[in-house]
Hints:
The protein is an alpha/beta fold and about 500 residues long.
Amino acid sequence: xxxxxxxxxxxxxxxxxxxxxxxxxxxxxxxxxxxxxxxxxxxxxxxxxxxxxxxxxxxxxxxxxxxxxxxxxxxxxxxxxxxxxxxxxxxxxxxxxxxxxxxxxxxxxxxxxxxxxxxxxxxxxxxxxxxxxxxxxxxxxxxxxxxxxxxxxxxxxxxxxxxxxxxxxxxxxxxxxxxxxxxxxxxxxxxxxxxxxxxxxxxxxxxxxxxxxxxxxxxxxxxxxxxxxxxxxxxxxxxxxxxxxxxxxxxxxxxxxxxxxxxxxxxxxxxxxxxxxxxxxxxxxxxxxxxxxxxxxxxxxxxxxxxxxxxxxxxxxxxxxxxxxxxxxxxxxxxxxxxxxxxxxxxxxxxxxxxxxxxxxxxxxxxxxxxxxxxxxxxxxxxxxxxxxxxxxxxxxxxxxxxxxxxxxxxxxxxxxxxxxxxxxxxxxxxxxxxxxxxxxxxxxxxxxxxxxxxxxxxxxxxxxxxxxxxxxxxxxxxxxxxxxxxxxxxxx
Length: 493
């Protein structure tokens, strides 16, 4: 039996691993301060997403409309050597430049291109430097009027002669321990896992199934930066996606005990235009995370959902349409916020009632199959969990971990069981489980731990779903980070 708790701080490592962590304190001379860089700026320029490696500056510039004109820099007359530090803007004979780890790059670029370059450099240094930097705009207290999608504005459609494939990315846990070496490194590994899955499966859609970030490890209001990084491999391939919240996505910051040792608290640098109030150790709300995702990503199908379901945010339904007619549904996908973090781990009576009413409204005769997604398993998962490996009615490769369910059952499962159209429920949360087990005519499935963040050292992967139209079927399997496939199961036919 594995000693775990999906609700605890997910960066927890063994005592031995904790002892060998680099005890690093940020060197003040390695800090970077870039004013006006938008939090949530594009992150896909940070990596070669198909190979999972960091791009060089010359390569970064290729994503912009105009190529830079490079010139030899000379800083001897304008800047004294002792006064040069990474991130400082300098003036010299070739125009303007920025010093990055003791290498000075000069450029002659339009101001817009310069701003975009600074965004990329800032984002990369945030991962590689042991320091926290707060940007001026979009930091969580931004009061701009952002309109959220709460009604259908576009649809998903099966390609003629093909199936509709979905990849589930569960428990990525981006943003853990950014003040260490291993924190940013594991985020890069998570990008590589997602890239491998996307390139092997070529899904039509991706579901981010909660715990996209570990907010309790993110000390300032820049959680959307890590959220955006998690979206980057999917966005880079122009693959549409939807997301739901998990218990760690807006959890309160947990102060590491080692910060109170001799190494001290890593410095938090704020722009002079930002008041000290914004430098405090507090997180980004569910609502702001959703606003930022929707505002900055054309391929996001995520929605806030009905405001009367507050404090839960990501409650909505998407239609998968017929290849011949976009108005004819082949399946409905329902997404729910299962709570945790800033409020209890629960699906409320209000959410259950919303599903009952909505499903009757758009699928009154229950003829169209319905698929359900949320993060934390319901108590029903604990009841159907196999008692030993290889239970004859269950399909999967990991069975030994104990299910960590929601705190209470408020009627959702009763409604789901009562609808013949509901085929399967998919959850994450338990990193050491990937099984599908039947609950009468309904299948209850775990996804596969996708990210290198969070507890556990099991190999990473993704649960894949495949919907075929005529005749309808729902198949699933696990695709691993090394490319191999296992645990095929037919969930409906």
